[in-house]
Amino acid sequence: MSTELPSDPKESPPAPRPAPREVWKKGGRLLSVLLAVNVLLLACTLISGGAFNKVAVYDTDVFALLTTMLLLAMVWILFYLLGTARCPNGVPYRDAHAGPIWLRGGLVLFGICTLIMDVFKTGYYSSFFECQSAIKILYPLTQAVFVIVQTYFLWVSAKDCVHTHLDLTRCGLMLTLTTNLAIWMAAVVDESVHQSHSHSSSHSNTSHTRLALDLERASSAVGGDCSCDTAVCQIFQQGYFYLYPFNIEYSLFASTMLYVMWKNVGRLLASSTPSHSHAPSPVSLFRETFFAGPVLGLMLFVVGLAVFIIYEVQVSGEQSRTQQALVTYYSFNIVCLGLMTLVSLSGSVIYRFDRRAMDQHKNPTRTLDVALLMGAALGQYAISYYSIVAVVAGTPRDLLAGLNLAHALLMIAQHTFQNVFIIESLHRGPPSAEPHDTPPKEPCHGLTFANLDALHTLPACPPTPRLVGPSPAGPQEAASIIVAPRSHWRRRCLKDISLFLLLCNIILWIMPAFGARPHFSNTVEVDFYGYSLWAAIVNICLPFGIFYRMHAVSSLLEVYVMS
């Protein structure tokens, strides 16, 4: 006869079961990646084919494909939002490192500018509605709705670690990511063709004019007898071309956040994930700096804006004014890149004295940041090496060729040392992770014992006399007070370095993003490689260089917070 033991009333309830581990995570990821690759290749084929008249692909076909992708992505986003709202247990974890506030804030800023661009584009196509396809007006309207829906989705769900409908969620995220990349490529192709057409139309060379005729349809985006003659139409046309950089950055920002969400699908985390990425308040942004970095960075930012305006005004004028504009442009960039290289080197030297432990935790956001920094830098590396070969092996040996060579060499050095500084900073722990030298305890003299068994019989050491007054709570806190003055100057220097590099990267993003193309105004590379080959190199590699600058800004802001 069995007797049941009485249950202990103080027995704690059973711990909640963790979320089940996925059987084959790589299989679900493989399915979504294959879907994304096929859709992206189809979009790239149509977008690149629609840029030339020799291919029987019309811009209406491209707009139809992009509109369809936007609609499908919006349907999935709405399904995701409704599904997670009705099933709160579907998101048991949230990644504290994903979707920091400055990344989401930048997404909102670029999204607003993209909405303004869509308004300009809608007004531009509506100016000659009689001879245009309706899809050209429907596309910017659909894109505006997509930007609103996606921005809200990423604002509220960027940190989600989803555990329901895993394969469907991965495929939906990859479809949305592919849609953003297709929009990015369409904007890059349209802007590059527009820049090539503007450059070709300003030269009397017949080969350039022939190329401009081949690219005219994509740059003007009109066909038949349509013409943009009215002042309002021209304002709309110039307006949305100048807003293209913001649309490009919005698509890339959204793509990075969607990739992190895709990596976090089915991810198991601890109940509380440590995070040291907090957004700085505007009041405390410059409080813990020596002010040297922000002041010098602001000075270079203002001077860079003036140089950019002078360059844009003079570069399309006479040959002498173009030469002067290029000398001014290269001189500023050489000074700016040289200072950024030295500052990045000094930051790496400071880290040799930093005692913070390296953060070895798994962090998909940081892994993606490092990969994007290294990958995007390859675009500027390629342009710089092509320029070095053209200058060294070419015939001109004038001032402009020397400045071009120095600019290319410093561009390589600056990207290299800045990447080293940022990547090392992202792998450092927070300031609280710095080890402190704990003061040694006072020994107890005169105590001897034969064996450990007699230890409990020995009298305790008398406490050390202490002054009564406000004192730290423990030895570690006391040590932190002693160590703080020694480490405080390092943190201040690192914050100055971060803000200086941040401001310099912003001005170096503004210049090429808003139309500065010294690669074509300076004829060294054009004469050496030929216009067609050099235009292909620049139009492929320069968008990656522009993205590098903006991604470096977001990474440097995180470095500032972590310092």
UniProtKB/TrEMBL annotation:
<feature type="transmembrane region" description="Helical">
    <location>
        <begin position="331"/>
        <end position="351"/>
    </location>
</feature>
<feature type="transmembrane region" description="Helical">
    <location>
        <begin position="101"/>
        <end position="117"/>
    </location>
</feature>
<keyword id="KW-0406">Ion transport</keyword>
<feature type="transmembrane region" description="Helical">
    <location>
        <begin position="290"/>
        <end position="311"/>
    </location>
</feature>
<keyword id="KW-0812">Transmembrane</keyword>
<keyword id="KW-0407">Ion channel</keyword>
<keyword id="KW-1003">Cell membrane</keyword>
<dbReference type="GO" id="GO:0005886">
    <property type="term" value="C:plasma membrane"/>
</dbReference>
<dbReference type="GO" id="GO:0015252">
    <property type="term" value="F:proton channel activity"/>
</dbReference>
<feature type="region of interest" description="Disordered">
    <location>
        <begin position="1"/>
        <end position="20"/>
    </location>
</feature>
<feature type="transmembrane region" description="Helical">
    <location>
        <begin position="250"/>
        <end position="270"/>
    </location>
</feature>
<keyword id="KW-0813">Transport</keyword>
<feature type="transmembrane region" description="Helical">
    <location>
        <begin position="30"/>
        <end position="50"/>
    </location>
</feature>
<dbReference type="InterPro" id="IPR004878">
    <property type="entry name" value="Otopetrin"/>
</dbReference>
<feature type="transmembrane region" description="Helical">
    <location>
        <begin position="528"/>
        <end position="548"/>
    </location>
</feature>
<comment type="similarity">
    <text>Belongs to the otopetrin family.</text>
</comment>
<keyword id="KW-1133">Transmembrane helix</keyword>
<feature type="transmembrane region" description="Helical">
    <location>
        <begin position="137"/>
        <end position="156"/>
    </location>
</feature>
<dbReference type="Pfam" id="PF03189">
    <property type="entry name" value="Otopetrin"/>
</dbReference>
<keyword id="KW-0472">Membrane</keyword>
<feature type="transmembrane region" description="Helical">
    <location>
        <begin position="62"/>
        <end position="81"/>
    </location>
</feature>
<keyword id="KW-0375">Hydrogen ion transport</keyword>
<feature type="transmembrane region" description="Helical">
    <location>
        <begin position="497"/>
        <end position="516"/>
    </location>
</feature>
<feature type="transmembrane region" description="Helical">
    <location>
        <begin position="371"/>
        <end position="393"/>
    </location>
</feature>
<protein>
    <submittedName>
        <fullName>Uncharacterized protein</fullName>
    </submittedName>
</protein>
